[in-house]
TrEMBL record, chain B:
Top-rank taxon: Archaea
Annotated organism of origin: Archaeoglobus fulgidus
Any one biological process term the GO annotation gives: methanogenesis, from acetate
Subunit annotation: Heterotetramer of two alpha and two epsilon subunits. The ACDS complex is made up of alpha, epsilon, beta, gamma and delta subunits with a probable stoichiometry of (alpha(2)epsilon(2))(4)-beta(8)-(gamma(1)delta(1))(8).
TM region positions: none
Name of this chain's protein: Acetyl-CoA decarbonylase/synthase complex subunit epsilon
Alphabetical list of Gene3D superfamilies matching this protein: TPP-binding domain
Family, similarity comment: Belongs to the CdhB family.
Length: 794, 178
């Protein structure tokens, strides 16, 4: 019955204004709500602690002091405590948490920029449509936030959650908060999960609003490398990670019918995203190509946005007479804000040299200014495209300055023997020992900072290998975005059962310990063995530069499907969300596990069943730290190159500690000890040989069927014999029955099990009688989450 | 300890910026390393990926093994070592994993904990981080016998980058004295 309650009643509405804010709509009941929608720091803490109990955090301090507050600096060496009471281990965990906060903020702020801009342009009701083959449109948002976004406006809700969590975790790094390194690691995992949500928001928004490819396997191939541009045309170079600002350049050139009169090429992920917008755009290369391209004088104008851009860009460009247009508020670069200026005035100021660069955060104006500036600079200075030095004599004079003091060698990230190359060139005129350094040089320029003679060492190295550098061009398959639901349906079972031996996700920056071609050598080993290879960001464009003897890149040799023996380029850094998304979709589409607010169950499923391994051969950025840590929380191990040890923290289990490796088996209802698979969540390798073997071993999962385990062990053992010279140390602990053994080696391996490991073998039946840690059971149903165990035991 | 009159190169860090406040490694000559090995209860040599491109280091590691020092091979260094008859204690695990294991007092692959660990054939920046972990979180005596001076080891060769022959000669000298 209707009842009038106490309250304020307005009789007369004169001079009363009523504002209606957001109308709260009830979420459509698309799936039962799981236990952790929009989780705070604590909701998944138990899951993290489970992981960290097994995969113990390992710290390798870069500094053993802390100077974050005014009580310091404090000596924390040998795990001493500082003035605030924090010890070295916890201080390192805090630092990693801060790094992950930075990474998460980068992607999430990028997403915020994009979503706000796109809502302004297209409206908040603009539909999220990723094509007919993608119905699970946002697996991360569904799983973490618990919503099913249908519009750009819905993405804002996911962003609001991510932003709130980033602030909360960042708060925890303030002096006088957390005192447990394990809890800091939990927070690092939490903020990195928010990072994955931020990435998903950003990429979904740009795919739907900019019309990027929607999960299409056979996207176009675009030219990639140093020598890709026609220097007879004005060259516009875009650099960074947020394509929102430079996309209008293409629009303007298309509108004016002049797109073919210009070259538009990019560095880093903006390059990827420009090619996703229009495949007429090209890719110069990753961050290590910034100085290569600028100092070669290839661009007529540079447009920068945000993240992983050199912090001396204004200086580098102005020395080459290249005007710079900075666009993102994340990197204003000390330049004057010309947002309110007329286009003609901005062009005039840049072309005349009155301004070295401008800050112009208005995408539409950037679209018009950049081509106009490029055209004028090109006309005026056609011969500026030179080979790092104006002449051979100038190069020779630069080399002659070197005294072999070796200051450069002891600042170079790779300790490259620049002194030997210089000395050899001085004596013989032969540049070959300098040229070979180019293959490994990151072009960071630290060598030049240390050189007492101010030698332009980067230029010397680049010029010495100019012909090969120029020829290092190939094709990159344009980033396709998400994985189709139909593809997941096809590969879900073979991945979970192990017949597809694994998914290798090559993601990250360019701090390779070896020549660039090493990434291709590693990945091709897995492509030939019918693993699924997925890639993104800088790794994806490096792959596009390295050709085989027939002049083909991996993209031209292997299809772009998410399937065995194929290589998928998902796109830019933020597209990494689709790799995590694919793992989640396997749990959802193949195994029918509900996603909504159900993170721990999904991560537990992935950890025990999905043989996916992340691989960052050249980790560098904070974003790489949060991407990797986000994958770790999701149950995906990550292998990093040796520079990755400088993140200071790893998650490495101890396989000989049998009591650490257990699961609940839903079928038997018992706690069961298992083989340590995978035995590390984050681990560095030193060489490509070691990378290959580690990636193969970390694909093994407790849930593998006999056939799957047999296939995985076959590859692991073959690769170990090939690269380590013998059987792996630990192959036997993955054997549950004779059916797990590689067919071709079965008898040989049974003999080893009997002789070296004391197992009992029935030789008449060729069966293992005694020895394995556990037997194989087709109904084995592992979980480490009590609630999941209880749920499926019912 | 290296004294100035012996004309060893100076102990210059492999990377000038890899600075910490705690004590830097004592730069040592081969005879000191040999004595440390002789006094050790359970020494081990850990080898790294540089052995794949430096034949001489393989030869040296083989000689250590022949002198009875067990070898843990990482980074793929097991392949050339196995070809020359070495049976490494481990060949699958990375230096990162081996360091994590070393930090655990329960890690006794040959029945005892390792008290002296020698490192040969590593990318310096990778080894530096592992030495830092062992310095701060264990009591193990670490000895870096690579061509670079490693500040985070307990003992390290001085900087021999400019003179590989001297480096090899120093390694041979250790072998001749154990």
């Amino acid at each position: 019955m209707f009842e009038i309650r106490k309250g304020i009643f307005v009789d007369d509405l004169k001079n009363v204004s009523i504002r209606i804010g957001e109308i709260a709509e009830e979420e459509e009941e698309w799936e039962a709500l799981g236990p952790t929608p929009k989780p705070g720091i604590l909701e998944l803490r138990e899951w993290d602690h489970k992981l960290l109990e097994r995969y113990e955090p390992f710290y390798a301090p870069m500094q053993d002091f802390c100077n974050l507050c005014t009580m310091g600096p404090c000596d924390l060496s040998h795990n001493k405590k500082g003035a605030c009471g924090i010890d070295l281990r916890t201080a390192k965990a805090r630092l990693v948490t801060i790094a992950c906060c930075i990474g998460a903020s980068a992607h999430t702020a990028h997403a915020r920029h994009l979503v706000d801009h796109l809502i302004e342009e297209f409206g908040e009701d603009f539909a999220i449509d990723l094509g007919g083959d993608v119905n699970v449109e946002a697996p991360l948002i569904r799983t973490v936030v618990g919503i099913k976004p249908k519009t750009l406006g819905d993405l804002r809700k996911a962003l609001e959650w991510a932003e709130k969590e980033i602030v909360k975790v960042l708060h925890s790094t303030h002096i006088g908060n957390e005192e447990s390194f394990v809890d800091y690691e939990s927070k690092a995992m939490h903020v990195s999960m928010a990072d994955h949500v931020g990435m998903e928001v950003a990429d979904i928004a740009q795919i739907v609003a900019f019309g990027f490819p929607k999960a299409k396997p056979d996207t176009d191939l675009v030219p990639t490398g140093f020598g890709i541009v026609d220097t007879k045309k004005p060259v516009i170079c875009v650099v960074g990670h947020n394509v929102m600002y430079s996309r209008p350049i293409i629009d303007y050139l298309e509108r004016s019918g002049r797109i073919d009169e210009f070259e538009v090429a990019g560095l880093c992920c903006t390059a990827h995203d420009m090619t996703r917008y229009r495949s007429k755009a090209k890719i110069f290369g990753p961050i290590s190509y910034q100085l290569r391209v600028i100092r070669a004088g290839l661009p007529d104008v540079v447009v920068s946005d945000e993240q992983c851009i050199r912090a001396d860009l204004v200086d580098a460009c102005s020395k080459m007479g290249i005007p710079l247009i900075a666009t993102s508020d994340a990197a204003v670069r000390g330049l004057p804000d010309v947002s309110d200026w007329k286009v003609e005035d901005i062009v005039e100021a840049l072309v005349s040299g009155k301004l070295k660069g401008v800050f112009l955060p208005v995408p539409e104006k950037v679209g018009e200014v950049a081509p106009k500036v490029a055209e004028e600079i090109f006309k005026r200075n056609k011969d500026r495209k030179y080979k790092f030095f104006a002449s051979d004599d100038e190069l020779k004079a630069e080399i002659a300055k070197c005294t072999q003091c070796m200051s450069c060698v002891f600042t170079c990230p790779h300790n490259l023997r620049i002194d030997i190359g210089m000395a050899h060139a001085q004596k013989t005129g032969d540049l070959s020992k300098l040229a070979i350094l180019e293959e490994q040089c990151l072009a960071c320029g630290k060598c030049e900072q240390s050189c007492p003679k101010q030698i332009k060492i980067v230029n010397v190295i680049m010029r010495s290998n100019f012909e090969k550098l120029y020829a290092k061009t190939g094709k990159t398959r344009v980033g396709r975005g998400p994985i189709q639901d139909t593809e997941i349906r096809k590969v879900g079972q073979p991945i979970v059962f192990g017949q597809i031996p694994g998914v290798i996700a090559a993601v990250g920056c360019i701090n390779f310990p070896d020549e660039m071609k090493s990434i291709v050598e590693i990945l091709e080993e897995f492509l030939k063995r019918k693993y699924i290879v997925v890639t993104s960001g800088c790794h994806a464009m490096d792959i596009g530069m390295i050709k085989d003897e027939e002049g083909k890149t991996l993209y031209e040799k292997y299809p772009g499907n998410f399937d065995a023996g194929c290589i998928v380029n998902v796109g830019s850094c933020v597209s990494n969300a689709h790799i995590a998304g694919a793992a989640i979709k396997i749990a959802n589409i193949f195994a029918m596990r509900p996603l909504r607010g159900n993170y721990a169950e999904i991560a537990d499923y992935i950890l025990n069943r999905v043989g996916a391994v992340g691989f960052s051969w050249g980790p560098y950025s904070h974003k790489a730290a949060s991407i990797a840590t986000g994958f770790n929380r999701l149950g995906v191990p990550v292998v990093v190159g040796p520079h990755g040890t400088k993140y200071r923290r790893a998650y490495i289990g101890k396989p000989w500690k049998n009591d650490k490796w257990w699961v609940y088996d839903v079928k038997s209802g018992k706690k069961t000890f298992i083989e340590p698979a995978p035995d590390s969540l984050l681990v560095a390798v030193e060489t490509k040989e070691e990378a290959i073997v580690q990636l193969a071993r970390l694909c093994i999962r407790p849930n593998d069927t006999s056939m799957g385990r047999q296939i995985k062990l076959t590859h692991y053992i073959e690769l170990s014999k090939k690269y380590m010279g013998d059987l792996p140390d630990d192959w036997h602990i993955y054997v549950r029955s004779e059916a797990d053994l590689p067919l071709k080696m079965r008898e040989e391996l049974l003999k080893v099990l009997e002789e070296q490991h004391g197992w009992k073998i029935d030789w008449d039946k060729k069966k293992i009688v005694e020895g394995p840690l556990r037997g194989y059971d087709a109904g084995f149903n592992p979980t480490v989450v009590e609630e999941v165990f209880a749920k499926y035991r019912r | 300890m290296i004294s100035k009159e012996e004309k060893f190169p100076i102990a210059k860090r492999y990377n000038v910026a890899d600075v910490q406040v705690s004590k830097e490694a004592t730069a040592v000559k081969p005879v000191v390393v040999a004595n440390l090995i002789k006094k050790a209860k359970n020494p081990v040599l850990v080898t790294g990926g540089v052995l794949l491109r430096e034949e001489k280091l393989v030869e040296i590691a083989v000689k250590f093994y022949e002198k009875g020092i067990p070898v843990i091979a990482t980074g793929g260094s097991s392949k050339p070592l196995i070809e020359k008859g070495v049976k490494p204690l481990f060949k699958t695990y990375t230096l990162h994993q081996i360091t994590q294991f070393l930090l655990d007092e329960d890690f006794k692959p040959n029945g005892k904990s390792f008290d002296v660990v020698l490192f040969l054939g590593f990318l310096p920046y990778y080894l530096s981080r592992m030495l830092s972990a062992l310095k701060h979180f264990s009591n193990i005596t670490t000895i870096a016998i690579d061509e670079f001076y490693h500040p985070h080891a307990k003992f390290s060769f001085t900087n021999l980058t400019k003179d590989k022959e001297m480096h090899y000669a120093m390694l041979e000298e250790i072998l001749s004295k154990i």
